[in-house]
Amino acid sequence: MTGNCLKILTPISSSKPLLFSLLSKPTKTQFKTSSSFVLSVKMSYHKELAAAKKAASLAAQLCQALNSCSLSPSCKVQKVLLQSDVQSKSDKSPVTVADYGMLVVSGRAACSQALVTFVLERELPSEPFSLVAEEDSTDLRNDGATDTLERITKLVNETITSDGSYSVPTLSTEDVLKAIDSGKSEGGSAGRHWVLDPIDGTKGFVRGDQYAIALALLDEGKVVLGVLACPNLPLASICGDYDKSSNNEVGCLFYAEIGAGTYMQSLNGSSPVKVQVTAIENSEEASFFESYEKAHSQHDLSSSIAKKLGVKAPPVRIDSQVKYGALSRGDGAIYMRFPREGYREKIWDHAAGCIVVTEAGGIISDAAGNPLDFSKGKYLDLNVGIIVTNQKLMPKLLKAVKESLEEQSSSL
Ligand SMILES: Nc1ncnc2c1ncn2[C@@H]1O[C@H](COP(=O)(O)O)[C@@H](O)[C@H]1OP(=O)(O)O
Ligand SMILES: [Mg+2]
Ligand SMILES: [Mg+2]
Ligand SMILES: [Mg+2]
Fold first, then answer.
1. Are 199 and 221 in contact (CB under 8 A)?
2. For a tag site, which of 112, 124, 335, 390 has the least CB within 10 Å?
3. Distance, CA 18 to ligand 4 centroid (Å)?
4. What is the reported pLDDT for 245?
């Protein structure tokens, strides 16, 4: 076989024939030909990455538009609802209890999910579509949600029209509900699955702080591409001594494809730049990220670990997977996350962030040093917490984590 030809081969781990170009790049996958000859080729996800970038960027545009209060009759009303009624659902993630308030928050995320689904399906019409996503349409199907559903549908349609690349008839409310509910896949180790958190860091979004639209693709249980749209993240570093006045622009898009590195560009569409995690080797010079919300991660534990490492800088507390994006470009050196007992991490909260950091040279593991396994369905099955840093600092960080966890359990 020569470089340019196209040929139908069967991936060893899949029963479906696959047409692919031997010129394709990155991931190595093994295929067998009819004569049981095993061939190693590199898979490319360029088309899927382009679709994911477009979907996440449009969803970011929609979320920013939602911030200008289009979902509620009055900005003031919305602000009051958002700030006073945010409470917890059974998994302790934030949701508003007052019906209308709840719809304002979950409706926005669902709106973003509907748009991402629409774009992925339009951009990749010949690929089977499977999506593991956070939101569903239950709240929007309630009788009291008619108004919100209509507003959401209008906004999704407006965003699609303003983009101008799709000549589709206007989506109906039922089309939007269906699009939201196509995110019900369970994922797993076979085939391809998109993984989406349509608004990651709900509390940050509600506060007007950091949040992300996080989209990744799993192929045979591995994350092969990831996109993080971070509408409120400055293009300039958010750590250390930087000149805040030099670049006030906000809105970053991080993206990574397996074997091809991590890039950042502005959400306004500037040229992409390749990014790298910090090269710091001395942990005393490191600064670290953790959740803004104390309820999401044990701050006392990360502070004891930081002390063991000799870290001098105070923690940088921000919401969502924006932390992974910031780390991938060298803002800070460490991310530590230790949820309270009983909390189960979901794949949509880490898949995109994970590849964005690892393709930028970083390393991510659970608190025991095991890599994260995205092949087990919608939950990550892991030991205690998640830690992220560069290759040089990881052994020291793991040692400090182990010691602090031992101290914590002996003090109970
Ligand atoms: N009790 C909790 N503990 C840990 N993480 C949580 C908890 N509740 C929600 N989350 C999820 O953690 C992420 C926010 O993490 P961080 O604290 O680092 O900003 C979000 O994905 C959020 O979900 P959501 O997408 O609904 O906002
Ligand atoms: Mg949530
Ligand atoms: Mg999330
Ligand atoms: Mg979310």
1. no
2. 124
3. 33
4. 54
What's the CA-to-centroid distance between 210 and ligand 4, angstroms? 12
**Maximum Cα–Cα distance across the chain:** 69
- Distance (angstroms) between ligand 3 centre and the Cα of 13 equals 30
> How far apart, in whole angstroms, are the C-alpha atoms of residue 125 and residue 225?
19
CATH no. for residue 395? 3.40.190.80
pLDDT score for 96: 39
What's the complex ipTM? 0.93
Query: Do residues 204 and 248 share a domain?
Result: yes
CA atoms 226, 232, 235, 236: torsion sign? negative
Same domain? 263 vs 293: no
Structural domain boundaries, residue 13: 3-42
Which residue from 91, 210, 232, 293 has its CB within 8 A of the most atoms of ligand 1, so it is best to mutate? 293
Which residue from 201, 213, 30 is spatially nearest to 119, judged by alpha carbons? 213
Kindly state whether residues 239 and 354 are assigned to the same domain.
Answer: no
Tell me how many domains the chain contains: 3
Q: Which atom of ligand 1 is nearest to the CA of 348?
A: 21
* Ligand 1 atom closest to residue 203's alpha carbon, by position in its atom list: 27
CATH number of residue 82's parent domain? 3.30.540.10
161 and 263 housed in the same domain = yes
pTM of the model: 0.86
